[in-house]
Amino acid sequence: MSRHVIGRPMEILLVEDSPIDARLTMAALKRSGVPHRLTLMRDGAGALDFLFHVGIFTRAPRPDLVLLDLLLPKKDGFEVLDAIRADDNLHEIPIVILTGAGDEDIANRIALHEVEYFLKKPVDFDAFLDIVKRLRSYWRDDLILPALD
User: What is the per-residue pLDDT for 96?
Assistant: First the structure.
């Protein structure tokens, strides 16, 4: 049986200002075995430019999944979340919140934004990997599968 693949990898936008958390998330995704391409944005303003194809991001791919921290410089995660959910072309993108902020007010605000999952940092990476694998259902039409011979 051949092991070449068909389709395309999952496009993931990681919006995270902490280099340590970004590195841990990228390592977990690599361990997941889910074929993906990842773009890392370090602040909310950059994430919005990427999502709305502003400036150097005019040809940026549409993400299949957004992993979003809430405590970001320039524009916070809620501003990014509001912009995604308000846009007809982006509102269906699944969003996973990964944040150190975890009080009840934050959890209630997140619930109003229809996010798929909310994980408090430090993230339980087994739970995180399980979530990423479950989110395959959002992009099954483009899923990379081993070709059958």
Answer: 85
| Phi, psi values for residue 58, rounded to 5° | -60, -25
Q: Work out the end-to-end distance of the chain between its first and last CA atoms, rounded to an integer number of angstroms.
A: 6
Distance of CA 48 to the CA centre of its chain: 13
Helix, strand or coil, per DSSP, at residue 33: coil
Residue-wise pLDDT for 54-95, tens only, equals 999 999 999 988 999 988 999 998 899 999 999 999 988 888
Separation between Cα atoms, residue 105 and residue 109, nearest integer Å: 6
Nearest Cα neighbor of 65 from 148, 123, 121, 137 is 137
The rounded mean pLDDT for the chain is 80
Phi, psi of 99 (to 5 degrees): -150, 155
- Determine the Cα–Cα distance for residues 76 and 65; give it in Å rounded to an integer: 18
What is the spatial distance between Cα 51 and Cα 49, in angstroms, rounded to a whole number?
6
